[in-house]
Amino acid sequence: MEKRDLRHLKRKELIDLIDKMQTDSDLVSNEEVKEELGRLKEREKYLKHLRKTLSVLVVVAAISVLVATLWMPVLKIYGSSMDPTLENGQVVVSIKTKKLKSGDVVAFWQGNKLLVKRVIAGPGQKVDIDVNGKVSVDGKAIHETYLDSESLGNTDIDYPHQVEESRWFCMGDNRESSIDSRSAAIGDISKEQIEGKVLFSVWPLNKIGIVK
Q1: Which of 27, 31, 77, 170 is the most buried (most CB within 10 A)?
Q2: Contact (CB, 8 A) for 150 and 132
Q3: Is there a catalytic annotation at residue 99?
Q4: Distance of CA 188 to CAs 88, 128, 144, 157, Å?
Q5: What is the 3-state secondary structure (H, E, C) of 95-106?
Q6: What value does the mean pLDDT take over residues 144-164?
Q7: Sorted alphabetically, which Gene3D superfamilies does this protein's record hold (predicted)?
Q8: Paired sense of beta strands 91-95 and 105-110, if any
Q9: What are the boundaries of each domain within the chain?
Q10: Pick from 193, 15, 36, 23: nearest CA to 100
């Protein structure tokens, strides 16, 4: 038997071969058998390590999917209604929560569409917007540093507007083009509609960071 043929033998076959060597010196040398046994041991060790690594990766992937689905959904921004804070194509991570406050960026369901807007006022608060787009809550003008410009935008509701209980008044940061709680078609957002609070931007690379 040639040396290359040893690669086709299993470990037990090699051990049996050693026993036969004692009576048949024409098979292979003892050194060759030891070499192949060592190779098989290393291969078994590698395969064991590979199986363990793959098992860990499967568990990590499963946990990641579970966390993303139940607690921290990953969302992609569509459109320009949240410019300049969030741009079209940007990818963000949100957290499942119903505890919201003014200024939070939230994702919520409107029919079968997932929208992202900013909370302006909460349950029971009164919202007023003047003709120039200046927003007041409970009679106090709010300072909106996240805006490029103020605008009354698309609105067909009466002001001042009192937010219903267990609901939130939300608007996009691009006030000129955003369709939001200023429209009766959307109105105040209920807690049942809320998907989560947007926390981080993860894509593109130049936008990675906390969403404010």
Answers
A1: 170
A2: yes
A3: no
A4: 24, 14, 20, 11
A5: ECCCCCCCCCEE
A6: 95
A7: Umud Fragment, subunit A
A8: unpaired
A9: 3-70, 74-210
A10: 193
Both tokens assigned to 82: 């949240």
Task: Give me the numbers of helices (H) and strands (E) for the chain, helices first please.
Answer: 2, 12
Tell me the pTM.
Answer: 0.68
Spatial strand order in the sheet of 126-129: 140-141, 135-137, 126-129, 161-162
Report helix, strand or coil for 119.
strand
| Span 47-90, pLDDT tens digits | 887 787 777 666 555 555 555 555 678 899 999 999 999 999 99
Which residue, among 181, 143, 141, 183, has the nearest Cα to 163 in the 3D structure? 181
Burial of 85 (0-12, 13-18, 19+ CB in 10 A): buried
**Active-site annotation holds for 81:** yes
How would CATH label the architecture of 74-210?
Answer: Ribbon (2.10)
Question: Among residues 94, 117, 197, 207, which one is catalytic?
Answer: 117
